[in-house]
Design brief:
Elements (H helix, E strand, L loop, with lengths): L18 H16 L7 E5 L1 H12 L6 E5 L8 H5 L1 H8 L3 H6 L1 H4 L6 H5 L4 E6 L11 H10 L4 E6 L8 H4 L2 H11 L2
Parallel strand pairs: 1-2, 2-3, 3-4
């Protein structure tokens, strides 16, 4: 814990970053900090796990050293409400009409102010052919909004790659370099 990088995870199951889900992750965060782990972790999220991590980050920006995503869902209006509606509504414990009416309140890409003011850097790797979590509706939108707010975000767009577990994503040297550099700060 005093040198190097450690990885810890918490499986919350079928969640999409609703307040009750992020509250459960806060319990995990608090337990890890109580055990001596960093009070400012680097959050790594893949696919819908990216949505959960980003949702926690926007609610706890002062506790985040950096955010790293592997083709992360960043936008509730994209994949979650189009292809995972039942699980999304269950996580938020509200009807679709209620969630849509309050979307700006819960959608990570609409709530970047805290991350921006805390100067949380981001790195995301995404495929340009991802039809499951489309780049433009997710990482592309996150990148556009974060840069517009003056935030530091690096995106590696992988040509011809979709939403699958390949070395392009899971052996991405730029991602590893970003994590190492962020951990050293």
């Amino acid at each position: 814990m005093n040198a190097g990088i450690s990885i810890a995870g918490f499986d919350l199951g079928e969640v999409r970053g609703a307040p009750a889900s992020t509250a459960k992750f806060t319990l995990f965060y608090d337990a890890m900090v109580a055990r001596g782990w960093s009070p400012k972790p680097i959050l790594l999220g893949q696919s819908r796990g990216g949505l959960m991590m980003l949702a926690w980050a926007v609610r706890n920006a002062e506790k985040v050293r950096a955010f790293v995503g592997i083709y992360p869902v960043c936008n509730l209006a994209s994949w979650p409400l189009k292809n995972s509606r039942a699980a999304t509504l269950a996580d938020f414990a509200m009807s679709e009409a209620e969630l849509v009416a309050r979307l700006a309140e819960f959608n990570p890409v609409d709530n970047l102010r805290g991350l921006l003011s805390n100067k949380v850097p981001m790195f995301v790797v995404h495929g340009d052919s991802d039809v499951v979590v489309p780049y433009g509706d997710n990482t592309g939108l996150l990148e556009k909004r974060y840069k517009a707010g003056g935030g530091s975000i690096l995106v590696k767009l992988i040509p011809g790659e979709g939403h699958k577990e390949t070395p392009s994503f899971f052996e991405c040297h730029e991602l590893v370099d970003f994590v190492i550099a962020s951990a050293a700060k």
